[in-house]
């Protein structure tokens, strides 16, 4: 038996050495809207594995989210970047981004439809173990994955990185079926204290398995290298970025047992 296990380990290492990363853009639909997401996975093995939905920040689906999907694929997950705004809708400046993000933040029903369409697309992938699925999001995307959980979606967990935590419909916390991890900049000026307090109350009242981690010295957009401080209150923080990614990995290890 020991010899057999050693042979299996050798085979596993050989497969890992020949790992081939596959990335592609995929069109999918939500109602009449055409959306264009991004898929990443390692095709050196065909066994179904956990899937992770990635939701973009307010500038829409960019290289940033695609790089995060590749990082997740290198960890052994199937990663799919959702497109909330729609194919070809990619804001070019803060004003355009604000217009697009506001459209969905003020229509949470539409936001939930769009993110659930992305989740459905991820789950349709034959390489995804649909009993082990999570969603992560950045800024606008962080807000979005919380809304995904509030919609009652079937998944194991969501991770919000510096996302808005306001609770426009606090009673919807009762719909949450998964675990929740919030990675938050302790000095984020965009998060109102009352919104943070309302979120915590919503989670407690609904009996959600949740955790909130605050990173000292971090403001908004702390995971995004392109946040150079030109937007006041939003700046990259390498230490908080690495720590929050490590916290996400520990969270996944728990929920994907």
What this model shows, in words?
The relative contact order is 0.11. The chain starts with a helix and ends with a helix. It contains seven helices and eight strands. Helix 6 links the parallel strand 7 (179-185) and strand 8 (210-215). The chain is globular, with a radius of gyration of 18 Å. The protein has a single domain, classed as Rossmann fold (3-Layer(aba) Sandwich), CATH 3.40.50.1820. The chain is 39% helix and 24% strand.
How does the SSE layout of this entry go?
Blueprint: H1 2-17, E1 21-30, E2 33-42, E3 49-55, H2 63-74, E4 78-82, H3 94-105, H4 108-124, E5 128-138, H5 140-150, E6 157-161, E7 179-185, H6 193-206, E8 210-215, H7 238-255
Parallel strand pairs: 3-4, 3-5, 5-6, 6-7, 7-8
Antiparallel strand pairs: 1-2, 2-4
Helix pairs in contact: 4-5
Radius of gyration: 18 Å
| Low-pLDDT sequence parts | 1-17
CATH topology: the name is Rossmann fold
Major sheet: order of its strands?
A: 1-2-4-3-5-6-7-8
End-to-end CA span? 25 Å
CATH superfamily: Alpha/Beta hydrolase fold, catalytic domain
Which CATH architecture is right?
3-Layer(aba) Sandwich
User: In this structure, how is the largest beta sheet organized?
Assistant: 8 strands, mixed
* Secondary-structure element series: HEEEHEHHEHEEHEH
Shape: globular
Give the percentage of residues in beta strands: 15-25%
How much helix is in the residues? 25-40%
Indicate the structural class.
Answer: alpha/beta
In the CATH scheme, the class would be: Alpha Beta
Total number of strands: 8
Number of separate domains:
1
What is the residue-averaged pLDDT? 93
Number of helices: 7
